[in-house]
Amino acid sequence: MTRIAVDCMGGDYAPEEIVKGCILAYRELGLESILVGDEEKIGKILKREGAENLSVVHAEGIIQMHEPPSNVLRKKDSSLYIAGKLVREGLADGLVSAGNTGAVLTVGKFVVGSIDELERPPIGVALPNPKGKTVLLDVGANVDCKPKHLLQFAVVGHTYAEEILNIKNPRVGILSIGEEEGKGNELVKDTYPLLKVSKLNFLGNAEGRDIYAGTFDVIVCDGFVGNVILKASESLGFAVLQMIREEVEKSFFAKLGALLMKPALNNFKKKADFAEYGGIPLLGAKKPVIITHGRANARAIKNAIRVANEFLAHHFNERLGENLRRLMPQEVKV
Asked: For the chain, first and last CA: distance in Å?
C-alpha cells in the first residue's frame, strides 16, 4: 500500500484540520499517510479521534507562511523538509502540504527532485468548463520562462489530460492576446513554431475567453500569467456566489426561486470549491507533490491525498517521460 507524507504543520488550520484530513483519507478512502510534525500535538488529536494507528514522524521546526522559500533548505528539522526527505528516500510515495507555497515548490524541486527529461516542473490545474475540464499550466512554479520550457509544459499538460482526465489526443493551445499566428509577446511568438512542429495536437493561440469555453483541453503560459488567472478565477467564483446570496435576500420571490435552484447552486459551488479538488500538483516531480490551499480543511487534505494516489495509480511520471521523448522536436530536447 502506498503512503503519502503529509506536512501537518503547514496551513492556517494546522495541525488540527491536517490531521483530521489524514484520518478521513484512511477511513473513507483506505489511503494511508505518514503524519509529519509535532508528535505531541499530532498524537493528542489522533488519540481524541481514535486513530492512533496512523504513523507519525516527529519534526521540531515549522516553515512560516511569511518566510523566504529558500529557508526550507536550511531548516532541515522542519516538517516540510522532513516530509520531502521521506519521499526522496523512498519511505513515502508522495507529499501533501498546505504550507508556504514557495517552500513546497522548493522542496518539490530540490529535495524530491524532478524527472530527468524535464528541466522545470510546472504547476497544473484542471479548470472546469461546460464540456469538462481545461488544463492550465504553469500557474506559478516558473515565473520567467523560455520557449523550450513552454514546449515542455505543453507535453506535461498533454500527459495530464490523457492520463488523469482521460482525454484522448488533447487539443493544445498557447495563451495569447489574439487567435492569429504572430499575435502575442516575444515568448509566445518564439514558442509557437516549436509547438507547431511538435507531435502534439497543437491548435494555435488560445485567448482568455477560451480558458473556460472548452475549446482547448490544454493551455500553456508562463507561471506569472497563470498564477494571476488562477487567483482571479478563484476570487470570481466566490464573488459570484456572494452576489447571488445578496440578491436573493432582497425579495421573497427571489428566496423562493433560490430554494428551487438550491441543488444547481450547490453543484456550481462544488465546482468552484478548492476543497473538492484537494490541491494542485507539481507536475514532473519524481513523486507526486500536491500543494493545497493555505486555508485547507480536513476535506481538502483528504482529497489532496486522494489526488496524490491517483497520480501514482496512473503511472503519471512514466507516461510523462515517454511523452517528453516522443512528442518533442529533437532539436529542443534538454
From this structure: 34
Residue spans of beta strands (DSSP E) within 87-236: 94-97, 124-129, 132-137, 171-175, 201-206, 218-220
Question: Torsion angle, CA of 27/29/31/36, rounded to 10 degrees?
Answer: -60
CA distance 82 to 72: 10
Question: 266-290, pLDDT tens digit by residue?
Answer: 665 565 555 555 689 999 999 999 9
Instruction: Quickly count: other Cβ atoms within 10 Å of residue 52's Cβ.
Output: 10
Domains of the chain: 1-118+275-314 (3.40.718.10), 122-250 (3.40.718.10)
Region for 278 from its dihedrals, namely left if φ exceeds 0, alpha if ψ lies in -120 to 50, beta otherwise: left
Residue listed under C-alpha cell 459551488:
269
Question: Which residues of the chain carry a pLDDT beneath 70?
Answer: 264-278, 330-334
Q: Which three cell numbers stand for residue 198?
A: 511538435
